[in-house]
Every structure is written in C-alpha cells, then in structure tokens.
Specification:
Number of strands: 0
Helix content: 55-70%
Structural class: mainly alpha
Strand content: under 5%
Amino acid sequence: MNLKTCHKNISYKKVFGIVVIASFITWLIAIIINPESIQRDLFYERMKDFWADATNTTGYAHNPNPYLDSSKGLMNVQYPPLAYALFYLLARAAGTVSIPYVDYFNNPLWTFLFVMTLIMAITLMYTLIIKKLGGSAKTENVLVGMAICVSYPMLFTIERANIVLIAALAVMIFVFYYDSESKIKKEVALISLAFAAGLKLSPALFGILLIYNKDWKAAIRAIIYGLLFFIVPFFFFDGGLEVVKGFLNNFGLNLELEASVHSLGINGIAKFYYGIVVRALTGIYPDTFNENLDTVISVIKYILTAVILISGFFIKENWKKILNISIILIIIPEVSVKYCLLYIIPFIIIFLKDHENCKKSNGEIFILLSSILICFDYRFITTAYVNRPNLGLLILLFMATFYSVCSIISFIKNKKSAKLAA
C-alpha cells in the first residue's frame, strides 16, 4: 500500500471517531489536572456564565409577555414564542426567581428537569446517529456516535444550555428522513423541520432540500406546519398584538448587532484573522475593522450564498446539498455563535455514511479533516491563532463553493452539448 492509495482504504468513520474521542479524553485529563488552564477556553467566558441561556430564557418565559423583559437587553429576548412557551414549563415547575435569573440553577427541581431534558436529547441524538449509520452497534458506528456526543459543538452547547440543541436534533430528524419512502417517517421529518424553525427560525433554510427534489406537496405541508408552530405560540402569552410587536422589535434589534471576532459568520471570521495578521505585523491588536474590507467581504458572502444555493438544483449527491445548506446557515448571519456548529452534525453523519465503502477523493479527505477540526476538543497554546472551528468552516466553504461551481459549469456544458447534438 503506497501513500497515493492509502487514504482510499481507511475508514473515515474510525478516523473521525478515534481522533475526536481521543481529543476529548486528552482535554478531560488536562482540565482535571489544571482546571484553570487553557482547556477552560473551550467554554464561553471560561464558564463564568454557566447555563445562562437556559436560566435567562426561563426567567423571560415566566413573564406574561417575555418580549418586554429588558433585564438583559431587549435584543437578547428574540426567540420565537415557541421557545419561551417550552421554557415556561420549567418556569412553572420552578416558580419565580428574582433577577439575575441564574438563581434558577440553584433550584433543585429546575436543575433536575433540565438535566433530564439534556440526557434525553443527547441519547436520542446518539440513537439517531447509530440508526442512520446502519442500525448496528458496530465499533465504527459507536465511535462516531460517541464522538459527536463529546465533540466541541456539543460541549459548548451544553455549557451554554442553549435550546439550539433541541433545534439541531429536530434538524437531524428532518435531514435523515425528509426523502424517506415511509410516509410516517417523512411526515415526522416535515414536522421536525417546522418545530426547529419554530424554535430558531434559521433551520427553515433546510426546507430548500424539498424544493431541490421538487417535492412540492411536502414543501407545502412543511410550510403549513411551520406557520402553526410559529403563530399559535403567540397566543400562549398575554398582550395580543403587543407580543407580536415585541418579537419583531427585539428580533430587529438582534439583527442590527455587528459581527465580533467570536462570530462564526464570514464577517466575524474575517475580523478574527484580520486582527491576527495586524497584530503579527505591528504588535498591536486593532480596535476596529476596515469598513471597506467588511463591505467587500459582505458582497462576496452574498455572491457565494447565491451560487451555493442555486447549485443545489444541479448537484446530484445528497451530502453535497446538505453541506451547502449547513455551511450557509452558519456563515451568513452576522452573529453566529459557536453552538450553531451543531447544525453541521447531520451533514457529517451523512458524509461518513456515504463514504463508507466508496472510492475516496482528495477533496473528501479535506472534508474529513474539516469535520475533525470543528469537533476537536483539546486546546493547544496556538488555539488563539489557529481557531480550529473557523479553519474547519473555511475549508468546508471552499469545498462547497468548488462543488457548486463545478456543478453549474457541468450543467452549462451539458446544455450546450445537447443543443449541438440536436
């Protein structure tokens, strides 16, 4: 076996699973030995704001109209009403706490119910992964399932306690079964997509997979389900149209936020590397980002979005379509928090499944590498300079763009050839 053919015979699933799990074990040992080491940087603000997304949302949900709660800033109360309706169940069980809402963490019943929710969500996600990879508990399948459950996106999301975990789980169900021949599984997939969109809005983008397949009836049903999950929860709270106005106002305020160097959006990634380069050249980290460069990057971002999404009509491989939608969902928003990386997990599973026994190309090796970079836990001293999730996303963006452009060019060539033949 030589170097040119070696990568064609390895199991992507084993490589992914072993590397990610090894990184988790190494990270776990390191943080136990030195709890204040660089390993703590895996978490938002080094865990100083532990579970705040859940405790704050529970506090907002306890109000008759959550969108009027300005204790943390109105721009932070911008979830669709379905999210607050679900958190109201926790709020009702735990009762009212005073600001800061982090005190919910000290409520035994609230903590118990929330932990049970986490356990059920992660267990269901693991079960879905094993099922999608073939249904058997083969070593490589178990490795992948375990790797996802201890991956960087998962650990970061659990620490934040963000409801994106539930939304990502629903997206996974949709991506795995939207084209199922089983009517029941397909309908559950459509409802799951609507539910995810009802929690976070942005997952609705995955519905374009139905349009790519020209499955118009399923698309219409998904839209109907989505409208129900979005509109009906507004009536759960007091205030009538004031609740709707509050949501629109707060959501608009959130959209006005600019990308920071911590954002996974393409503008945020550009700011991160811009700062690194300027500091390397001048020794000073810049306080501002070049506005002209930011404008250019925004224009490129929208052009890439159009090319990548349009190409879905010409791409044949399902995993490439899912890659395109996943990467756009993460890099387009100005504010894209690291827990949004969970949306790329369904793609990783589909990719690993589709490349189990087929010939592997050099391009797909890069996709495997980027998936590992995104899921890797252990922090190195150079983490601040490399920023693995950013690098992994950039590789995936490059590959998605490459596949998209190739598919469009191939389509145009085939059209020309057909005309000449006629």
